[in-house]
User: Fold these one by one.
Assistant:
Number 1:
Amino acid sequence: RNCTPITERRLPMEKTLALCCELIRRESVTPEDAGCQALMMAQLDALGFTCSELPFGEVSNFWAERGTDGPILVFAGHTDVVPTGPPERWATPPFEPTLRDGKLFGRGAADMKASLAAMLVACEEFVAAHPDHPGRIGFLITSDEEGPAADGTVRVVQHLQDQGKAIDWCLVGEPSSSSALGDVIKNGRRGSLGAVLTIKGVQGHIAYPHLADNPIHRALPALHALASETWDQGNEFFPPTSLQISNINGGTGATNVIPGTVEVQFNFRFSTEVTEQQLRQRTQDILRAEQLEYALQCHLSDQPFLTPNGALAASAVDAIRDVTGLQTQLSTAGGTSDGRFIAPTGAQVVEIGPINATIHKLDEEVLVADLPRLAAIYKGILERLLLGKN
C-alpha cells in the first residue's frame, strides 16, 4: 500500500515514516530539489530555527540554525537522488512510496530521505523536551551531492567561513549501515585521485610491426607495475591504498592497424599514509622506468579525512548501543561523501544512516522499523553533546 500523507494524524513512532514518504514523493533527481527543502524548512521554522536559502547556480541549498551561543551540532545531508533507471523495471513506481513486507520502497528511501526525516523528527522531539537547550543545532542541506558537488556543500561551507561561522560537530546522514542499523558508522573517508594516462606509439600496418611501435604492448609492463605496487600498508583506520584500472581504450576499430596511442584510466583510493603528491610522483617514476613516451593527467576529487576520537564519535557509539544494543564499528570504507568538504574546517564528522544494500539500485528500500530507531539515535547524540547526558 502507499504511504498516507504526513498531514494525517499519526502515532509518534510513525512520524519519521510519514515524513520520509513525503520526501520520496518529490522527484528530486539531481540537481533538482522538487520542494524537499521547502518542506524541511517549514518544519524547522516551526521549531524555532532561522533558515537561510543559499542557492548557487542550479543548486538549492539551505542553512538553518537554532540557538545563539555555545558549540553547534550540524545535521548535513542532501535532498537530491540519482536517476531511477527504467521505471518499468521497478516493482512499484519509484516516486510513489510503497510499504511492503516491512519495508519502504522508493528512490531515495535509503539515500538519504530516511535520514533527513529522522533528523527532523529527532530535533522536534529534542526541542519539545528541551526548548531552552544549551548550545546550537544546525542543518546544512544541498541538492548537489549526487551530481558534480560544485555548487552544494562546498559552497555553503565557504559561505559559513566567510560569515565567521564554525562547525564543531557534523553528523552526515549517509547510509552507513551494512547489515543492521548502526552496525557501521563512517568516521572518515579515503581520498580519491583519478588519472588519465596516454601512452604514445607509432601507428602502422599490423603486418609490418618493425615499421610501427605498438603502445598497447608498451603499456602492459607499466600497467602491471602500477597494479602490483604496494603504495602503503594502511593503518588502524584505513585499508591500504588501492589503485584500480577502470578503462583501457586503444585501436582504430580495424583489425589490421597498430594504434598510435592507448588511453588508460585509473583511480587511487588512498589513506592518510600517503599524499596526493607522493602518488603522482611514484606513478611518474614507474612510467619513466619503463621508458615510455606518455602524458599523464591527474584529478584530485577528495582528500582523505578522519575523525578518530572525540565527543561526536563517542556520543554516536553510545547512542547506537542504547537504541540497538549493537557495538558499532568505525569504518572509512566506501565512496565519498560531503563530509570531505566539512572535515577540513576542523569539525568532527561522522556519517550515520540506514542500511546501504539497495542504494542507487532498482527498488531502493529501507526497513520501516529502522526509521523511528534512526531518529532515536540522532536524538541520543543531541542529548549527549548538548546536554552532557551519559
Number 2:
Amino acid sequence: MNFGQSFRLALKSLMTSKMRALLTMLGIIIGVGAVIVITSLGNGMQNMMNEQFEKLGANLVQVQLFMYGGDSRSVDPDDMYELVDKYPQYISGVTPYVSAQLAVRQGSEDFERTSIYGVGETFLNERGATMSGQNLGKGRFISYIDAARYQNVCVIGAYLEEEAFQGDALGKQLSIGGEHFTVIGVLEKNSDMSEGSGDDIIYLPYTTALRLSGSADASMYMFTSTSKDTAATAKGIIENRLYKTFQSSDYYFVMTSAEMMDAMNAMMGTMMAVLVAIAAISLLVGGIGIMNIMLVSVTERTREIGIRKALGAKERTILAQFVVEAATTSALGGVLGIALGYAVSMAANKVLPMFMTDTTVTVSPSFNSIVVAFGISVGIGVLFGYLPARRAARLNPIEALRYD
C-alpha cells in the first residue's frame, strides 16, 4: 500500500466519525492558532518598536547621571557641550534633557497632566523633528539665545494648543510654575489628542527649566553622533569623560539607540518565547488526544487488522497506515488552526487601534510561522501516532481474527 492509498483510507476513517475527529483535533487547532496569533502579535510589536526607534534616529546617544547626596563631583551642560567642540568628527550635538514638575495654567483652567521638559536647540534636528520623534508644526523651536538668556518661551503640543488656546497659540501667554511664558512654537499632532498624551507636552529652554525646578545641573543628556557608524565611538568618548570626573561607572549610564533597540528586541523575543511555550502546551494536549483516539481506533479495528495480516499485509504496511492516519488528523487540525490564527490576527488589526491610539501595530502572520506551525502539527501526529500504530502492526493475526 502506497502513501496515497493510506492517505485516502485516513480521510475515509475521519469522515466516518466527523465529531470525534473534530474533538480529537481541537487541541491541535487551539495550539496552532495560539502560536500563529502570538508570533504575529510579537512581529507587529517588534516592527512598531523598530519604527519608533527609526524616528528617534540611529545616531542618538542617551546619558543618565546618578547624583548621590553629599558628593561634590558633577558635570554641567558646559562640560557636555565641550565634547561637541572637541570631537566634531564623532559628536554632532548635545542637549540637556530636564524633566520638570511645574503647575500649568491658562486663564482659570489648570492642566495637571501636562509633561514639561527643558531642552536645548539641538533637540530639534535639521529635518524639523525632535529627538522624541515629534514634528514642529507652527512657529519655531527653542534656540541657543533662549537658553543662554533664560527666556520664558515655550513650545507646546497640539492638545494644549487646542484646549488652552482654541487652536491659535502662537504669541499667546501661558502660566508655567507661576511665571508667564510666550508660546513660540506648536508641535504637530503626534498622539490621540487626549489629556496626558504625547500631545499634552511643553518644551522650555533647559536653563529656564533648571531655574524653575531649583536644580543646579541636568541629570540627563541626549547626544547625536555624526552618523550611525560613529555612535559607538561617541559613546566611548562620553563614558571616558564621565569616568574622568566620577572615577566610577556607578554614577552614569550611557546607551546608544541601536543598543536600546537591541535590548528591546531581546526582551520581546524572550517574552514571545515564553508565550509560545505556554501555547505549545495545547499542542502537547492535542498530541495526547490523538494518541488516545488512535489507541481506541486500533481496538475497534482489531479484526480488520487481523484480516489484512492474514491476507499478507506486512507489519510496516499496517504501521504506515496508522501513522499516516494520525499525521493526517494532526495536519488537518494544523490547517484549521492556521485558519483560526489568521482570522484572529485580522480581527486584532480591527480591535487594537481602539485601545492603542498612540501607535499602530500591524498583526500579520508571517510565512515562516505558518510553515513552522504546520510542520509541528504534522510532527506531533507522527510522534504521538507511532505508539498506537506500532501496537496495531504487532498484533497477532490469529488473535486479531478471534477478537469480537
